[in-house]
Amino acid sequence: MQSQQTLQKREKSNPIFAEPDKVFDQVREFSESIATRAYEFFDGRGREFGHDLEDWLQAEEQLMRRVPVEVRENATQITVRAEVPGFTVSDIQVTVEPWNLAISGKAEEQRQEKDEWTVYADCASRRFYRSLDLPAEVDPARATAILKDGILEIDLTKAGASQAAKAQVKTA
């Protein structure tokens, strides 16, 4: 019960669930940043052709963090646990569709060091995007997500779970 109250409080201040239309914009933005970085590798190598996949994968590895997930299923629900250390609730968005779950995050860090001779500034952007096909249809309206200690736990209620009921057998 306490976790539900925590989630509701977080949703009011900064919702974790995103609109499905915004997910397409995020995917496009991720793809464009990876393409830009892959082109930098191509250009830096003297524009030598034949390494496009290698450049793309190297750019993807540098810019996007791989998010390990664990998916568990029982008769009424699916639980997805994702490791997202260093990200806050405001950095993460979750989109739930009947057969799909998308988790994305973006956090930017800025660091600046200054002494009398040197000025050093560094900016880093940490991003991730993970899309999962779900093993069963879920009800997006009943999804809950809780972030605790770098673990995002998403509980999804199966679509037919609330409608299932035992039928009493009678004789005629």
What does this structure look like?
This protein has 172 residues and is of the alpha+beta class. It has a single domain (2-157), classed as Immunoglobulin-like. Helices cover 28% and strands 35% of the residues. The chain is built from three helices and seven strands; from the N terminus they run αααβββββββ. The strands form two sheets. A four-stranded antiparallel beta sheet has the order 1-2-7-6. A three-stranded antiparallel beta sheet has the order 3-4-5, with helices on one face. Strand 3 and strand 4 form a beta hairpin. Helix 2 crosses helix 3. The longest helix has 25 residues, at 20-44. Mean pLDDT is 76; it is low at 1-15.
Mean pLDDT: 76
Count of distinct structural domains:
1
Total beta strand runs: 7
In sequence order, what are the helices and strands, one letter per element?
HHHEEEEEEE
CATH fold category name = Immunoglobulin-like
The main sheet comes to: 4 strands, antiparallel
CATH class: Mainly Beta
Structural class: alpha+beta
Point out poorly predicted stretches.
Answer: 1-15
Q: Report the sheet-strand fraction.
A: 25-35%
The quaternary structure here is single chain
Q: Numbering strands along the chain, what is their spatial order in the largest sheet?
A: 1-2-7-6
Q: Helix share of residues?
A: 25-40%
* Distance between the ends: 44 Å
**Shape, principal axes of CA atoms:** globular
Radius of gyration: 21 Å
Q: Please tell me the CATH architecture by its name.
A: Sandwich
Count the DSSP helices.
Answer: 3
